[in-house]
Specification:
- The complex is a heterodimer.
- Chain A is mostly helical.
- Chain A has 2 domains: 3-81, Winged helix-like DNA-binding domain superfamily/Winged helix DNA-binding domain (Arc Repressor Mutant, subunit A, Orthogonal Bundle); 93-172.
- In chain A, 64% of the residues lie in helices and 8% in strands.
- In chain A, helix 1 crosses helix 4 (70-81) and helix 2 packs across helix 3.
- The longest helix of chain A is centred in the last third of the chain and has 33 residues, at 140-172.
- Chain B has a domain at 5-99 and 164-227: P-loop containing nucleotide triphosphate hydrolases (Rossmann fold, 3-Layer(aba) Sandwich), CATH 3.40.50.300.
- Chain B contains 7 helices and 10 strands.
- Chain B has helices spanning 48-55, 78-88, 104-114, 119-132, 148-160, 178-193, 205-208; strands at 5-15, 21-32, 37-41, 63-68, 71-72, 89-92, 166-170, 197-201, 213-218, 221-227.
- In chain B, the strands form 2 sheets. Chain B has a 6-stranded mixed sheet with strand order 6-7-8-3-9-10, sandwiched between helices. A 4-stranded antiparallel sheet of chain B has the order 2-1-4-5, covered by helices on one side.
- In chain B, helix 4 (119-132) packs across helix 5 (148-160) and helix 5 packs parallel to helix 6 (178-193).
- The longest helix of chain B is centred in the last third of the chain and has 16 residues, at 178-193.
- Chain B is globular, with a radius of gyration of 18 Å.
- In chain B, 43% of the residues are buried.
- Classes of the chains: A mainly alpha, B alpha/beta.
- At the A-B interface, helix 6, helix 7 and strand 4 of A face strand 2, helix 7, strand 9 and strand 10 of B.
C-alpha cells in the first residue's frame, strides 16, 4: 500500500535506479517509512510487468535505471486523486487493551487507561525531542509535517482515553468523592 | 542542585463551614530543578491550578511545606513573600491581565518599576524581554492593537523580565492556534534552557510533550509521571 505509487511519484521527477529510489522514498517520508531494497525491486518488477515503468540498460556497476511511462503517470494521477483506502483497521491494540480491561474482572480499567495515557505522552515527548534535534538539518519541513501527523493521532488516542474514563465513571459511579469527612 | 520549587507533602483543603471539607490537593510532593520544564495535566477539578497557586505563594497549604529557592514560604514575612513573588517568580495566566492603557513595553516594565528599578534600566530590560519574545517592533503598541498570540507573548515577557528563577504558566496557550501556541512554548523552553524552572499547567497533550516531565493529577493526587527519553518516537506500531 503506497509503496508502488510512491515509487511512481519519485520516477515522475526523474529516472532513477533502485537504490536511489529507496533513499529518496525514505527522505521524502521523513524517515518514518523505511523500505528494504528487495521490496523496491519486487515493486519495480511488477510496475515493469504492468507497463508503468521502463527499464533501461545497466550501467558499468550493473545498475539499471527505471523511468515512468504514460500509463504510469495515469495510475499516479488516479491514486493522488482517490481517497486513501487504508482506513485504520478496527484491530487497534490500544482499543483492544482498553476493551479487555473494561470487560475483565479484577483489572482496574482506570489504571490501564492511565498507563496508556502516560505512554502516549512519553511518545509525544519523544517526537518533540526528535523535532528539536532536526531543527537545523535538511528536510525540516518534512520532519515537522510527519511529526504533526503523528502528534495529532496520539492526541486523538488521548482524547479517546479521556472519554473512556469519563464514560466509565458515569457508568460505574466510581468517581472518588472530592469531599471527605 | 537545590530545587527552585519544592512541594513537600502538600495538602490544601477548603473548609466551607459544613461537616465536610473540599480536598483540592492531597499529600503532593514535587520538586522542580533549574533548567527543568514540568507540565501538569489532569481533568478539571484535579488540583492543577491549586498546585500552581501554592507554588507561587498566592495561596497557603493546609498541610506540608512549599519551598521556593530553598525558602519555606510559611517562614517568610508578608513583605519578604511579596518581594520573592515579584523578583523570583513569573506568572503567566490564561487571562493575561495586561493593562490596556499601557503600551507593551510599559506593561513589561511595570513589575520592575514596582520593585524600585530606575525607569531607564527597567525600559532596557523590558525591551530585551520583548525582543526575546519576537516583539521588538511592537514595543510601543497597546494590547488592543496586538493579536492574541502577541498579547500572550507580551504577558510572557512581563513574566520573565528581571531574571526570574521560577516561571508558572496556567494554560498559557489557552485560546491560541497551534502555531501561536508553539511560539509560547518556544519562549518557555528558551527560559528553561537559560536555567529557569518552569511549571506549565496544560490540558493540551501536544504542549505537554515539550516538557521534560509530565505530572498527572487526579482528585488532588499525583497518580503518574511521564519522562522525556522513555518514549519511542518511531511510528506507533499498530497491527
Amino acid at each position: 500500500m503506497g509503496v508502488r505509487e510512491g515509487l511512481l511519484a519519485l520516477l515522475d521527477g526523474e529516472p532513477r535506479h533502485g537504490y536511489q529510489l529507496k533513499t529518496a522514498f525514505e527522505a521524502t517520508t521523513g524517515g518514518v517509512w523505511s523500505l528494504n531494497i528487495g521490496q523496491v525491486y519486487t515493486t519495480l518488477d511488477r510496475l515493469a510487468r504492468d507497463g508503468r515503468v521502463e527499464v533501461g540498460p545497466g550501467d558499468d556497476a550493473g545498475r539499471r535505471t527505471y523511468s515512468i511511462t504514460e500509463d504510469g503517470r495515469a495510475e499516479l494521477a488516479r491514486w493522488l486523486d482517490a481517497s486513501p483506502a487504508d482506513a485504520p483497521p478496527p484491530r487497534d491494540e490500544l482499543l483492544l487493551k482498553v476493551l479487555l480491561a473494561v470487560g475483565t474482572p479484577n483489572v482496574d480499567a482506570r489504571e490501564v487507561i492511565q498507563s496508556q495515557r502516560t505512554g502516549i505522552v512519553e511518545a509525544l515527548q519523544a517526537h518533540r525531542r526528535r523535532l528539536r534535534a532536526q531543527a537545523h538539518g535538511d528536510n525540516v519541513l518534512v520532519g515537522r509535517l510527519v511529526v504533526d501527523a503523528l502528534v495529532l493521532r496520539l492526541e486523538a488516542d488521548l482524547r479517546w482515553l479521556d472519554l473512556c474514563e469519563e464514560r466509565l465513571i458515569a457508568q460505574t459511579g466510581t468517581e472518588p468523592t472530592r469531599r471527605s469527612a | 542542585m537545590t530545587p527552585v520549587l519544592e512541594l513537600r507533602v502538600v495538602s490544601r483543603h477548603y473548609d466551607d463551614g459544613a461537616a465536610a471539607a473540599v480536598v483540592a490537593l492531597s499529600s503532593v510532593s514535587l520538586s522542580v530543578s533549574p533548567g527543568e520544564l514540568v507540565a501538569v495535566m489532569g481533568s478539571s477539578g484535579s488540583g492543577k491550578s491549586t498546585l500552581l497557586q501554592l507554588a507561587g505563594g498566592l495561596d497557603r497549604p493546609s498541610d506540608g511545606q512549599v519551598l521556593v529557592d530553598g525558602h519555606d514560604l510559611a517562614d517568610l514575612s508578608a513583605r519578604a513573600l511579596a518581594a520573592l513573588r515579584r523578583q523570583r517568580v513569573g506568572y503567566v495566566f490564561q487571562r493575561l491581565n495586561l493593562l490596556a492603557s499601557l503600551t507593551a513595553v510599559e506593561n513589561v516594565m511595570l513589575p520592575l518599576e514596582l520593585d524600585g528599578i530606575a525607569s531607564r534600566a527597567a525600559r532596557a530590560s523590558a525591551e530585551a524581554a520583548l525582543a526575546e519574545a519576537g516583539l521588538q517592533g511592537s514595543t510601543k503598541r497597546y494590547p488592543d492593537d496586538l493579536s492574541g498570540g502577541e498579547q500572550q507573548r507580551v504577558a510572557i515577557a512581563r513574566a520573565v523580565v528581571g531574571e526570574r528563577a521560577l516561571l508558572l504558566a496556567d494554560e498559557p496557550t489557552g485560546a491560541l492556534d497551534t502555531v501561536a501556541g508553539e511560539a509560547i512554548l518556544e519562549l518557555l523552553s528558551a527560559r528553561r534552557d537559560a536555567g529557569a524552572a518552569v511549571v506549565l499547567v496544560t490540558h493540551e497533550p501536544r504542549f505537554a510533550g515539550w516538557a521534560d516531565r509530565v505530572v498527572f493529577l487526579r482528585d488532588g493526587k499525583i497518580i503518574d509521571e511521564a519522562h522525556a527519553g522513555r518514549g519511542s518516537s518511531t511510528l506507533a506500531s499498530r497491527p
